[in-house]
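Record 1 of the preview.
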Amino acid sequence: MTWICGVDPGHPLVCARRAPGPFRSSVLCAAAALRPDNALPWVELAREHGDSRESARAFCELMYLWARDLLAAKAGAPPERAEAGEVAEVTRAAAASLTAAQIARRAELASEASLAIKQNAGATLAVERMLIGWFHG
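->
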């Protein structure tokens, strides 16, 4: 697997990519629950995962990987390829509610946010900017 942002593969968010668990599931469910008409949850999610540069970059990496999974689901990949276990339904529902262009834009925003954090942008603000871009980009 290629790491787009150089995050430690042992970080809880990234490590969970190989072994999905409740923590990763809760992060993806929280991201999937975000709606364009209520910015408060975006800010809360950014604060929660932007408390450190490493955490924010791992969150961006997870959002990038999830966007890839969403595209796979959108293209009709079998459920086991699109996402594993407890977040499979959330992934399928999110993929069905978004266009391929919207999903690709989310992946691009995640990559940009990760790069901005690497280049010394404020972690929380970079994550907030990414999430705002999901709906108003």
